[in-house]
Design goal:
By secondary structure, the protein is α/β, with parallel strands linked by helices. The protein has 10 helices and 18 strands. It binds flavin-adenine dinucleotide. Residues 9-15, 32-35, 45-46, 131-132, 160-162, 166, 184, 186, 227, 295-297, 303, 306-310, 312 line the site of flavin-adenine dinucleotide.
């Protein structure tokens, strides 16, 4: 498989991880991104120990940790009284238990670190403004077609094009999508605008009846990332950058603790976005011949366990190791899919259950319920897991 040429569709977190790791395995990589420039949205993402192992493997763990700043401990609080119900372990404790800690990262910083790692591989080409529309396979080659009319041929193609993947629908057909009746809101504000009452527990999760609110600092406490998920039976639009107003966000949390309302009241009006959460069934296969998928394209999931990016990162490393070990594309993709399917399906289904659990909550006293740590997801290293 040395010198095999891969087309990677989508330069998101999963696609760039795969691009960097595949070059380590001796492959040539051409990445296609529909956006005209390489950038991520201004929001946070929590990187847990398994993904920090992946960053160690790619040589970017120190950069990611330094840009994020000291990791904050997780808290769960009663939505109405603010009583602290649970104080999570520190990143140091995780390092002792799992060999790596966790970090609250700005998505743009993570994305830049991965883009630099991919570019540094030396066997990499990036095409921006290329929207994938379809692929054909013939004579041991795959040809991808883009909306601008251009076509590219290689040994294999990896769909890393996210939740609404066209690689998935063009290869496997479209699958039923269920609206969960939940809408997520997100915003980022300057840390110095955060109400003082929240500073003792700046990484905190408030679960109220049918709603949750999570916030955590980014970039050495320069910014605060805020995410709310609330019940909304009618509105169904999917997409990451649909503007929302401060009033509609605040209105949904009227019965939450006054400090939470003060936080929402301090959000800048032009930096609030929302999107409807949709759920899809796990796929029975991710691979057809010389085409496979990773990340949200392969296992789209609701965000209730906050593990989608970490799983996409794990996928990229495991896929590249499978390519390194195998002698054909078919063997590599079978090894990859075999190593990843059970874990990602478990998380997909558990995330759905957790969403239902949160939606059915009548009180804020019950604690956060099942989470990624209690499921044992952090005791995994994609760089060493047997394939
Ligand atoms: C509220 C919320 C909070 C989250 N928090 C966390 C968290 O704390 N930790 C965590 O691990 N995960 C988290 N996630 C999940 C995580 O953000 C996603 O799972 C992750 O971004 C998936 O990565 P990806 O590379 O598969 O897809 P994406 O990041 O969606 O990247 C896909 C890329 O493909 C491109 N693309 C799409 N279609 C085409 C096409 N046809 N042609 C060419 N390019 C295309 C897109 O422009 C994009 O650049 C969260 C998600 C949400 C919604």
């Amino acid at each position: 498989m040395k010198d095999a040429h891969f087309l990677v569709v989508g330069a998101g977190i999963g696609g760039l991880t795969a691009a960097a790791a595949l070059q380590r395995a001796g492959a040539r990589v051409t990445v296609f991104e529909q956006a005209p420039e390489l950038k991520e949205i201004g929001a946070g993402v929590i990187i847990t120990p398994q993904a920090m192992h992946a960053f160690d493997y790619l040589g970017i763990a120190d950069r990611v940790a330094a840009e994020a700043g000291p990791a904050e401990c997780y808290h769960s609080q009663d939505y109405a009284t603010g009583e602290i119900l649970l104080r999570g372990p520190s990143s140091e404790e995780f390092r002792t238990r799992f060999g790596a800690g966790f970090h609250q990262c700005h998505r743009a910083d993570l994305h830049s670190a991965l883009a630099d790692a991919a570019a540094a591989g030396g066997n990499y080409t990036l095409h921006l403004g290329h929207r994938f529309v379809g692929a054909t396979q013939e004579g041991g080659r795959v040809t991808a077609t883009f909306a601008n009319g251009l076509r590219y041929e290689a040994d294999a193609l990896i769909g890393c094009d996210g939740n609404a993947s066209l690689v998935r629908t063009s290869t496997f057909g479209s699958e039923p999508v269920k609206y969960t009746e939940q809408v997520a809101y997100r915003a980022v504000l300057d840390f110095d605008r955060v109400p003082k009452a929240l500073l003792d527990a700046p990484y905190s999760y408030f679960v109220g009846p049918g709603r949750m609110l999570l916030f955590y600092p980014l970039r050495n406490r320069k910014l605060m990332n805020v995410i709310g998920i609330a019940h909304e039976p009618d509105w169904q639009e999917e997409g990451w950058i649909i503007p929302a107003t401060r009033d509609e966000f605040v209105r949904l949390y009227q019965d939450f603790h006054p400090a939470v309302l003060a936080l929402l009241g301090a959000l800048p009006e032009d930096a609030i976005f929302k999107w409807a959460l949709r759920d899809r069934e796990p796929l029975s296969a991710w691979t057809q011949g010389r085409i496979t998928m990773l990340g949200d394209a392969a296992h789209p999931m609701t965000p209730f366990l906050g593990q989608g990016a970490c799983l996409a990162i794990e996928d990229g490393i495991v896929l590249a190791r499978a390519v390194d070990q195998a002698s054909t594309v078919g063997e590599a993709f079978a090894l990859y899919e075999g190593a990843r399917k059970q874990r990602t399906t478990t998380v997909q289904l558990a995330s759905r259950d957790r969403g239902r659990d949160l939606q059915g909550r009548k009180t804020g006293k019950a604690g956060p319920g099942q989470n990624a740590e209690s499921m044992g997801l952090f005791a995994y290293n994609p760089a060493t897991v047997p394939l």
